[in-house]
Design a protein that fits this description.
The complex is a heterodimer. By secondary structure, chain A is mainly beta. Chain A is 0% helix and 50% strand. Chain A has strands spanning 5-7, 10-13, 19-24, 29-37, 43-50, 53-56, 65-68, 75-79, 88-96, 107-108, 112-116. In chain A, strands 2, 4, 5, 6, 9, 10 and 11 form a seven-stranded mixed β-sheet that branches. In chain A, a hairpin with a 5-residue loop joins β4 and β5. Chain B is mostly beta strands. In chain B, β9 (83-91) and β10 (95-98) form a beta hairpin. Chain B is globular. The termini of chain B are far apart. The relative contact order of chain B is 0.34. Classes of the chains: A mainly beta, B mainly beta.
């Protein structure tokens, strides 16, 4: 099991471009979470998805950000018209399909470092 | 609103000395707290959960509801404990709310 895979590892974009960040959960995991870590800050929850469904997007900025987790393929975090303030490390985590909330463990990817020039 | 505070960004201790990484939280519901660790060049991973009352790699953490704290402790620090440590609070069904982290350096 290769673990949670994120790519690219580093992504450089100019202001106004689009950024696409990919996350392949661990095998057998159908729950995906995205977190953002701004410089000098802790990880902040963005969105929680199950296959083909957005369950909780309370942490997503209202504009320019979207996420999907299709039936086939990785989860995608998409940022349109990026601005300098979007520069951050974006982490994906996955969890097993079943499991009591008190036993839940999140398995994290290595993150994507987005730099907006 | 929920809040997780880790007051120390950096903490250095000598090998063999006791170590305590502080975490305070603010949450109106029943808290579930976790410690996550990120070793150099590795992924963020779960270290321990308060409900398990377990000791992992010699670390323990006790939830003190009166002081709203969940400090991480180890009686004798080892060099391999050097890492970034994050305290996290589970809020609702789906969300882990992280502190800003403490970088622990154990001096040989």
């Amino acid at each position: 099991n290769a673990g949670v895979m994120q790519n690219p590892r580093h992504l450089v974009r100019r202001r106004g471009q689009e950024a696409r960040l990919r996350c392949s959960p661990m095998k057998g995991h159908s729950h995906v979470y995205w977190y953002r870590q701004l410089p000098e800050e802790g990880l902040k929850f963005m969105v929680y998805l199950q296959k083909e469904n957005i369950i909780d997007e309370s942490g997503m900025p209202k504009e320019r950000f979207s996420a999907e987790f299709p039936k086939e393929g990785p989860s995608i975090l998409r940022i349109q018209q990026v601005v300098r303030g979007d520069s951050a490390a974006y982490f994906c985590a996955s969890s097993p399909q079943q499991g009591a909330p008190t036993n839940e463990k999140l398995f994290f990817g290595s993150g994507t470092q987005l730099s907006v020039l | 609103a929920q809040r997780v505070t880790q007051p120390e960004k950096l903490l250095s201790v000598f090998k063999g000395a006791p170590v305590e990484l502080k975490c305070n939280y603010s949450y109106s519901g029943s808290p579930e707290l976790f410690w996550y660790v990120q070793y150099s060049r590795q992924r963020l991973q779960l270290l321990l959960r308060h409900i398990s009352r377990e000791s992992i790699k010699g670390f323990t953490a006790d939830l003190n509801k009166g002081e709203t704290s969940f400090h991480l402790k180890k009686p004798f620090a080892q060099e391999e404990d050097s890492a970034m440590y994050y305290c996290a609070l589970k809020t609702g069904a789906n969300n882990l709310f992280f502190g800003t982290g403490t970088r622990l350096t154990v001096i040989p």
